[in-house]
C-alpha cells in the first residue's frame, strides 16, 4: 500500500497551508497549480499524478518521490 506523506513533508519544512505550498511551487519550480488541485493533494491520497506535478513538488520541497510516498507491503497471514 502507498501512503501519501505530503502534509508531513510540508510540516517538516514549516509549510502549513495550501497557499504557502502554491507560492513555493511557483517560486522554486516555476509551477502553477490551481487552488482546487492543491486542496485535492492536501486532503486525500492522489489516485494519479502528472510527472510534472511530482517533479515540481520534489523541487519545491527539496525532497524525493520516496519522501512523498511511503510503501507499506500488505501483511500476509501465515499459512497453517
Automatic annotation (TrEMBL):
<feature type="domain" description="HTH cro/C1-type">
    <location>
        <begin position="6"/>
        <end position="73"/>
    </location>
</feature>
<dbReference type="InterPro" id="IPR010982">
    <property type="entry name" value="Lambda_DNA-bd_dom_sf"/>
</dbReference>
<dbReference type="GO" id="GO:0003677">
    <property type="term" value="F:DNA binding"/>
</dbReference>
<dbReference type="InterPro" id="IPR001387">
    <property type="entry name" value="Cro/C1-type_HTH"/>
</dbReference>
<protein>
    <submittedName>
        <fullName>XRE family transcriptional regulator</fullName>
    </submittedName>
</protein>
<dbReference type="Pfam" id="PF13443">
    <property type="entry name" value="HTH_26"/>
</dbReference>
Amino acid at each position: 500500500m502507498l501512503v501519501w506523506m505530503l502534509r508531513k513533508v510540508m510540516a517538516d519544512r514549516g509549510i502549513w497551508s495550501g497557499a504557502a505550498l502554491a507560492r513555493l511551487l511557483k517560486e522554486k519550480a516555476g509551477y502553477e497549480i490551481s487552488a482546487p488541485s492543491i486542496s485535492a493533494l492536501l486532503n486525500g491520497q492522489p489516485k494519479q499524478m502528472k510527472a510534472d506535478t511530482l517533479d515540481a513538488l520534489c523541487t519545491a520541497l527539496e525532497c524525493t518521490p520516496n519522501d512523498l510516498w511511503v510503501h507499506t507491503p500488505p501483511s500476509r497471514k501465515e499459512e497453517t
